[in-house]
Amino acid sequence: MNLVIDREILLENLNTISRGLPVKSPMPILTGIKLYATDTDLFMTSSNTDISVEVTINDASLQIIEAGQTVVPGRFFIDIIRKINSKKVSLFLSEDKILIIKADRGEYKLHIMDPLDYPKMDFVSQENPLVISADVIKSIVRETVFATAQNEKKPILTGVNLNNTSGKLIITATDSFRLSQKIISIPDYKDFNITIPAKSLDELAKSIDNYGDNVNIYLSINKMLVTFKNICFQTRLLDGNYPDTTRLIPQEFPIVLKFNKDELAAAVERVSLLSPRDNTKDKEITYSIIKLSIKRDRIIEISTNNSIIGDAKEELIPTSVEASNSITIGFSSRYLLDSLKSFMSTEISLNLSGEIRPFIIKGENDANLTQLILPVRMEN
Description:
alpha+beta, DNA Polymerase III, Chain A, domain 2, 3 domains, 9-stranded antiparallel β-sheet, 8-stranded antiparallel β-sheet, 6 helices, 26 strands
């Protein structure tokens, strides 16, 4: 293999490829990037078993002198290309199994791995794509991924569920203590029910961060392939049945409190500075607990009691109150703040149905987004 390419083009594609590189792997070959040069194109592949990424480069600056293939140490290769300053980069595979990188007056040599040891990437057949805006995918990730479980007790909950029925796509994420749900329409596409690892969605969102066009999504039984520009991004799907969450969301709310989102978030952040942590060892719910109460004259009090450090409370005047009775409800301030960040609306509503029943958060301009939080029992 012998080629010359513009450094910026190579680096841009390596940054994409890095999404599939494992931090560590029981298979040393997967810590490498596979380079495969034909007479006209350069293919680069990475995989960490969960995610596989392949880019195809046929830029005008690419000059392939000799075709060939190899596997180079991924992180070292990326670091070298990132640090050098030359406009052009020359990659030459020597007979003694060394990749020589030449850039202006610099020369770097990397010991390579056998490309025959690199596992074959079995990408999903590219037929019958679901065409969807990259911006929609980015919004899905921003609005749901944070609510997935962080531990592996229930592996299925570490992913985001996408359930499409008759063109109504329901996207759900939950860790059993909170839930995020978004609904969008995708007419003229087959029904499906899949669960995508949260980490894969995070990496996909980063890959399309500066991309605003449509992407193509292809589904198989256990994989999802997303193609855009010159990139193939594939992730495994989680096995198992995602729990039915339809009954978790209350339908009637005797108490509806509307707030300016930023004012509510700022008050919650200040009060939670002194809030005690939940005593449970479960990392999913060891977050600061605060309580919200409706006081006289429709004033809302947010407070916390900490027997070791001290107490805190703030009063807020909501933009609107619909309440037939008073209520005091306790919940994780962290969960509320995470939920508020997912809304684009400036005004949000807390919809309450009881002190120990889940409450939901809605935004005036986010009609298809619902955030749910499970309250905690408060000691009298």
